[in-house]
Every structure is written in structure tokens, then in C-alpha cells.
Design brief:
176 residues, 6 helices, mainly alpha
Length: 176
Amino acid sequence: GRSLYVNYNPYAAPQAGPPMMGAPQGPPQGGAQPWDIGEIISLAFEAFKRCWGVLIGSMIVAGILTYIVAAIVAVPIILVVPGASDAFTNPASDPLLRAGLQVLIELVMFIPLSFFAGGMIRILLTAVRGGIPSFGELFSGGSRFAAMFGSMLLVTLVTSIGYVFVLVPGIILGLG
């Protein structure tokens, strides 16, 4: 089995081959294709080795910029909202205020996270498809911002509801 699919790329676009005469030599087009976990890990590692600098650097830059935005928003909230600084420093403070402030800051963090997520997906797809991604693609997520923001918000909402009811379904929904 493995020798037939050595050059199989699960991330490539579907290919329509010429009509086959006789018995098919591989899996039917459009159907599920067999894969080997070792081969997938090998393909992923080859893609990572080829452009590790852009992959790691873009994740670090996206993380730093996201936390800078969060700090820019959190500092005025802590200074303006009565009791906010006490809510973050004193464990015995009002838990409702603390939770509300955390939710507000996390919602604001979704803005840069959603923007950078679109760019990171483009970088990762370029790498797995055999191309060389550029660092500038990190900032190309604007066209998919609304979709990424909505999907991240929905996943967070569903995961949070799962955590409220039972921890295990929350983990399952989060991984899903």
C-alpha cells in the first residue's frame, strides 16, 4: 500500500485524471484516500524545515502585536472602571467584575487575533502546498476578517458553554 501513495499530498487540490481503462489503480477520485500517519508527519516536517523562520517568526509577531493591543485596551479600563485594578490584584474582590473585565479584554483581543489568523492560514497553506511563504502574508488577513472573527467567537462561545456544563464536552468541542 505505501509505495502507491508515496507522492500523495493530502493538502493538494483534487486532481481529475484521464479516464481509466480496466480496473482502477488507486482510490476512486473524489472518495476517501488512504494515508499513512508517518507519511503525513514527514510531509509536514519537510514543509516546516523549508520555511521554519517565516512560520515561527510570524507566530511570534502575531502574538506580540495581539498582546500589545490587549495592553493598550486593558490599561485604560483598569484606570477608568472603579474597582478594576482591585479586581485583578485582589483575589477576594468582586468575581463578577473580574469576569466581566476579562471577557471585555478577550473580546478586544479577538480583533487582532482574527486579522492575523487569516494571514497565518495563508502562510501555512502556502508552506504545505510546497511554496515559500512570505512574512508579509501575515498582514493579508483583512479580506477574511469578518469570517475569522465570527468563527473564533462562535468556537469560543460553544467551548465556554461546554466548560460551564461539563469539562469533557468543552474539551471535545474546543478540539472540534
